[in-house]
Amino acid sequence: MPMKKTLLAVVAGTLFLACNRTTETTQATRTPAADEKPATLSLDEEMCFQQVSGGQKRDTAWVHLNIKNAKVTGTYSYLPFEKDSRRGTLRGTKNNDIITATWTFMQEGQTDSLPVQFRVTLNTLQQKPYSYHPSTGREYLADSAKFMLVYEKLDCAELPALSKRIH
Length: 167
Prior knowledge:
8-stranded antiparallel beta barrel, two-stranded antiparallel sheet, 2 helices, 46% strand, disordered N terminus, Lipoprotein
């Protein structure tokens, strides 16, 4: 009889460890597709994102969003390394996981604005890139643009103070 109890304990222990190992493997092999799922945005939410890009990972961009019902406000700062930065405010609306806004920014002492469109997922903010119109010399948001620029979600406490407040 003691042999049966020992064998039963070994089998139960093995099953317990096998179940825990499966859970760890599932969590470690989470696919990027999980990040592509649309975020369920609450009626009142603050969210922050950062992107580091460029050849030497020196270009930085920060987005700070305040969402209240369907209205979106916030700031967007784009700081390319050794080039003119753009820092400004966002005002727009959200429809499901899509944010459509106007980015009003300062660059080289001049105020300018551009339309901007973001998609919020569980862990990222995705942005449609701008196209350049050679005859006008202006950037624009093409209707055919895809959400290609990716910002990683970050705790708003980690966002540099200069990106939260734009003068």
